[in-house]
Specification:
Layout lengths: L1 H20 L7 H18 L4 H23 L19 H25 L2
Helix pairs in contact: 1-2, 2-3, 3-4
Length: about 120
């Protein structure tokens, strides 16, 4: 019971980091990545049925955030930068992973509320 409580708290902290980072997706990318790691870790340790979704979303977010900061360190896109806009395709996994987690959280919330209203 005590172990389950800590894993729930870990998951909730991950969700809070995830949504706090969403306020500014560029600067909050580190919070979103950290939140996705905590949610995936908690889901894995709890044996959650959505663990594969959380793991996939975590990998997508980490991949996209890495390239987001890498390209930012090179000066970004457009203007005087030598990078083609096609390189932004490597950043796309970040919002895809974000949407995947958001959709999963909404699905779980709706499912839990339905279960509460139909005893």
């Amino acid at each position: 019971m005590k172990n389950t409580l800590w894993l729930r708290i870990l998951f909730i902290i991950g969700v809070l980091l995830f949504f706090t980072g969403t306020i500014d997706p560029m600067e909050g990318a580190v919070l979103i990545a950290g939140g996705s790691v905590l949610m995936a870790l908690s889901a894995r340790l709890r044996g959650d049925r959505h663990v594969n979704i959380f793991l996939l979303a975590m990998v997508l977010i980490l991949f996209g955030v890495f390239f987001l900061f890498y390209f930012s360190s090179l000066g970004g896109f457009g203007g005087s930068s030598d990078l083609s806009w096609w390189w932004t395709a490597l950043i796309l996994p970040y919002p895809i992973g974000w949407l995947l987690i958001l959709g999963t959280l909404i699905y779980r919330w709706i499912k839990r509320n339905k279960a509460k209203s139909n005893p």
